[in-house]
Write a structure and sequence with these properties.
Length: about 500
């Protein structure tokens, strides 16, 4: 073994210390020398409590008090913690400066965001919820200077019902598509009409159908584009002009709402269309993007509408919790990347299905055979004019297709095909990283009378597919074996 003399070790130590001293005295590539916390006049982490700190004279309190309320958020945390991602603030209530501060907060009109007085109670909003809401509003084209804003709800259904309840009263009338999310239809049938709210179902692919169904008391014109699950589109510009014409004839202009869950703000920013008043999303789907939250969003440029929406959310306790708000904000950070990949995979699947002898019809806006393809080329803007992506236009990850056969045969084949899949999961919901499939006639739309379901294009053999981010060959192989074997054993 090589021995080192004490003198040599001492020399090495002095040499190392000298190199460290020289390195500290120099700037690396012209960068300024990094000062220690003491040199900056800041208490270093570890010698104090950077996030939570005990109250003054904490030792004088009993043990139970120390457990319950001795630690407070420190001024250091409020001033110096600068997380790159949205912080999760889990507090259910917020400290007030004085009684007058509390009085001001309780006297304010409900609004999407807090003002300089801050927050009062978690049911009325929280910093994490508001941060995520502002991020989504920006993607919808609604900035901080707008009188409106965005509000995050505990589910897509609470966002839908919250938006409708905010503006509809007894004696009002609403126009709603035949092809609409099953829960929206269920709300109208089982609740709204019992509250004295009238509604008429229309073919949303025909703007004139809206014009013919308008009544003097029509308060809301509701659209869902792309429609769930048929992927048919509504010409929102045409419907907005119909609402304007209705107002020009001396009636109150209906509030035009659009559930744009399938498109997401990446493809369709409804509020950029003149005359569209409210955008609604089930953020459980593509906005969250990972099948790990249940959330919804309502966005509008109208301060008056958002005041009413905020009032409903506060009184019904439907504000999205901080953790889910954080996860939603995380999903938004990769929305553009995911939607491009969803679109690439879905187009390949749609082309395959469109050529399969067992498939009667495929509904995907990116196919030239889709009845609304020309409109889709305008609607699916893939980030809009300001998007720096160099990829080609995509059309989302949702598609639907109909198995061939008479009503009974098509129903049986569709159900059997869904149950034969190995990789693609038979489950409700959509928009996650994994591919999901469902059969509306035997699953999600069973509560809708068959004649209404068929009128909306939801045929017995129709299947809805949310194309995920898996390798496209794996998705295609699984679909092929399931479709080719949908008559096996039957």
């Amino acid at each position: 073994m090589l021995s080192v003399s004490p003198f040599a070790r001492s020399a090495c130590s002095r040499s190392f210390a000298m190199r460290v001293s020289i390195a500290r005295s120099m700037s690396y590539k012209g960068k300024p020398q990094k000062l220690t916390p003491e040199e900056q006049g800041v208490t270093p982490v570890g010698s104090g409590v950077p996030v939570g700190t005990p109250r003054e004279n904490w030792e004088a309190y009993g043990y139970a008090t120390r457990c319950a309320s001795v630690v407070k958020v420190s001024d250091f945390a409020l001033r110096r913690i600068k997380a790159v991602s949205l912080p999760i603030v889990l507090g259910s209530t917020f400290e007030l400066d004085d009684a007058a501060h509390g009085a001001r907060l309780h006297s304010k009109l409900e609004a999407p965001y807090a003002d300089g007085d801050g927050y009062v109670y978690g049911r009325w909003g929280s910093p994490t919820n508001e941060g995520a809401a502002r991020q989504l509003a920006a993607l919808e084209g609604v900035g901080p200077d707008s009188p409106g804003g965005c509000m995050l709800f505990t589910s897509g259904m609470s966002a839908i019902t919250g938006a409708l309840m905010a503006v509809l009263k007894s004696g009002d009338h609403a126009l709603v598509p035949y092809a609409v999310y099953g829960g929206t239809n269920e709300f109208l049938v089982q609740f709204a009409q019992d509250w004295g709210i009238e509604y008429t179902l229309v073919d949303a692919t025909d703007p004139d159908a809206y014009a013919r169904a308008l009544q003097p008391n029509t308060k809301v014109v509701y659209t869902e584009s792309p429609a769930n699950p048929t992927c048919r589109l509504t010409d929102l510009r045409a419907v907005a002009k119909i609402c304007d014409a209705h107002a020009a004839n001396g009636h109150t202009r209906p509030i035009l709402m659009c559930d744009s869950t399938f498109a997401t703000p990446f493809h369709q920013r409804c509020l950029e269309i003149d005359g569209v008043d409210v955008a609604i999303h089930s953020a459980t789907k593509y906005i969250g993007g990972h099948s790990d939250i249940v959330a919804g969003a309502v966005t509008s440029k109208s301060g008056e509408i958002m005041h009413e929406v905020a009032k409903v959310q506060k009184l019904f306790g439907a504000a999205l919790a901080p953790l889910e708000s954080f996860l939603l904000a995380r999903g938004l950070r990769t929305l553009h990347v995911r939607m491009e990949r969803h679109g690439e995979n879905a187009l390949a699947v749609a082309k395959y299905l469109d050529s399969h002898p067992m498939i009667a019809q495929t509904f995907y806006p990116g196919l030239e055979s889709h009845p609304d393809h020309e409109l889709a080329k305008e609607v699916f803007t893939s980030g809009g004019a300001g998007c720096m992506s160099r990829r080609s236009q995509s059309f989302g990850g949702m598609l639907a297709f109909i198995l061939k056969g008479d009503d009974e045969t098509a129903l049986r084949r569709a159900r059997r095909m869904c149950e034969r899949l190995d990789l693609v999961t038979l489950a409700v919901s959509l928009g996650g990283t994994e591919s999901l499939i469902e059969h509306p006639a035997s699953m999600t739309h069973t509560m809708i009378p068959r004649e209404d379901r068929i009128a909306g294009g939801l045929y017995d053999g129709l299947v809805r597919l949310s194309v995920g981010l898996e390798d496209i060959d794996d998705i295609m192989n699984d679909l092929k074996q399931a479709i080719d074997g949908c008559d096996d054993g039957l």
